[in-house]
């Protein structure tokens, strides 16, 4: 089933970008498995780059997006970008990334996601290409994680609530010094 979804959007992306130069931007860490499988199914020339996006708060500003684009010597200005992420949930990350790349001069910014969870959307953001839509469940596997674990599962599954409820109930065990 995973392969069928990836094949579907690979065909769509191939048609959308045929004859254009474009760069696939893998949003780290979650999308690396999906992005690797996806680009191998796109039979037209493309470039590959990576971005890590971190939201930080310094006490005076919240929601600032810190982007680390790899390789750093690539210019963003004038490029057609395809942002590839594991899941489109609230839409905040994808929306902020697209806005940041447009502000840096990208010609066109589109998005491809492995999973789309529209029930959780808090901003106006839709994926241009999506493999699967999922309900409002906590999913792991195939790049998706919980507390850094489960990314290596070769399938997507739901995490039992007891796992994350237990962690939430015991913050002192997880974060030394937490009250």
Helices and strands in order, then pairings?
Elements: H1 2-17, E1 23-28, H2 32-39, E2 47-56, E3 64-70, E4 80-88, H3 92-103, E5 108-116, E6 129-133, E7 139-140, E8 157-158, H4 161-169, H5 171-174
Helix pairs in contact: 1-2
Molecular structure report:
- This protein is an alpha/beta fold and 179 residues long.
- The chain has two domains: 2-136, Rossmann fold (3-Layer(aba) Sandwich), CATH 3.40.50.2020; 137-179, no CATH class.
- Helices cover 27% and strands 28% of the residues.
- The strands form two sheets. The chain has a six-stranded mixed β-sheet. A two-stranded antiparallel sheet has the order 7-8.
- The chain is globular, with a radius of gyration of 17 Å.
> What fraction, in percent, of the residue positions are helical?
25-40%
Q: Which word captures the global form?
A: globular
Identify low-pLDDT runs.
Answer: 56-62, 172-179
Number of helices: 5
Structure at a glance:
It contains 5 helices and 8 strands, in the order αβαβββαββββαα. With 179 residues, the protein is an alpha/beta fold.
What tags apply to this protein structure?
179 residues, alpha/beta, Rossmann fold, 6-stranded mixed β-sheet, disordered C terminus
């Amino acid at each position: 089933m995973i392969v069928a979804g990836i094949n579907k959007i690979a065909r769509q992306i191939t048609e959308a970008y045929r004859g254009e130069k474009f760069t696939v931007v893998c949003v780290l860490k979650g999308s690396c498995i999906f992005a690797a499988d996806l680009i191998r199914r796109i039979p037209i020339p493309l470039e590959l780059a990576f971005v890590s996006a971190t939201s930080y708060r310094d006490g005076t500003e919240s929601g600032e997006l810190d982007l680390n684009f790899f390789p750093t010597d690539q210019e963003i200005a004038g490029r057609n970008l395809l942002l590839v992420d594991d899941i489109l949930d609230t839409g905040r990350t994808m929306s902020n990334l697209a806005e940041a790349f447009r502000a840096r001069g990208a010609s066109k910014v589109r998005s491809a996601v492995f999973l789309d969870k529209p029930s959780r959307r808090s901003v106006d953001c839709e994926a241009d290409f999506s493999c699967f839509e999922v309900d409002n469940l906590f999913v792991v596997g195939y790049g998706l994680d919980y507390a850094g674990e489960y990314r290596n599962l070769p399938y997507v599954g739901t995490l039992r609530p007891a796992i994350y409820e237990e962690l939430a109930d015991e913050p002192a065990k997880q974060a030394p010094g937490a009250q």
